[in-house]
C-alpha cells in the first residue's frame, strides 16, 4: 500500500499545535449576551413620590355601625332608622374614613345582608368587621 494512502499510525503521530478556540468563543458569546440583557434592567429607575414629613392630615376616626339582635341599627352608639342609614353613609364616611360594622351573633343573616347591600350601594370602600377576634373554633 502506498504511504500517501495509508492511515497514520500512533507511532508517527505529531502533537497538534493549533488551539481549539471554539468552546472559548461560545463561552464569550454567552457572557456577552448575559451582559447585554442584564445591564438595562440594572440601570432602569422607577420614579416614586414619597411623602415628605407630616404634610398630610391624619385620617379621621372610623364610624361604627352596630346591628343588634332584633335588627335595630346604631350609628356610633346612637339608634338610627333604616331611612337614615344611606344619608349617614353618604355624609359620614368619606374617602379616608373607614366604616366598622359589628353584628350581634343572634341577628338574622338576611338583615346583615340587606345592610351590606345598602353599604355597597352608598359607595363605601373601606369596611371592617368587628367582634370576631375572640371567636374560637373547636
Radius of gyration equals 38 Å
Mean pLDDT: 79
List the secondary-structure elements in sequence, H or E. Answer: HEEEHEHE
Low-confidence segments, given as residue ranges, are none
Helix count? 3
CATH architecture of the domain at 63-130: 2-Layer Sandwich
Distance between the termini: 96 Å
The portion of residues assigned to helices is 25-40%
Give me the side-by-side strand order of the main sheet. 3-2-1-4-5
The strand count comes to 5
Beta-strand share of residues = 5-15%
Global morphology? elongated
In the CATH hierarchy, the third-tier topology of the domain at 63-130 is known as: Nucleotidyltransferase, domain 5
What's the CATH class label of the domain at 63-130? Alpha Beta
Specify the biggest β-sheet.
5 strands, mixed
Helix-strand category: alpha/beta
Give your account of this protein's structure.
This protein has helices at 22-43, 84-92, 109-122, and strands at residues 63-67, 73-75, 78-80, 99-103, 127-130. The radius of gyration is 38 Å and the shape is elongated. A hairpin with a 2-residue loop joins strand 2 and strand 3. The protein has 3 helices and 5 strands. It has a domain at 63-130: Nucleotidyltransferase, domain 5 (2-Layer Sandwich), CATH 3.30.420. Helix content is 33%, strand content 14%. It is of the alpha/beta class and 138 residues long. It has a 5-stranded mixed β-sheet, covered by helices on one side.
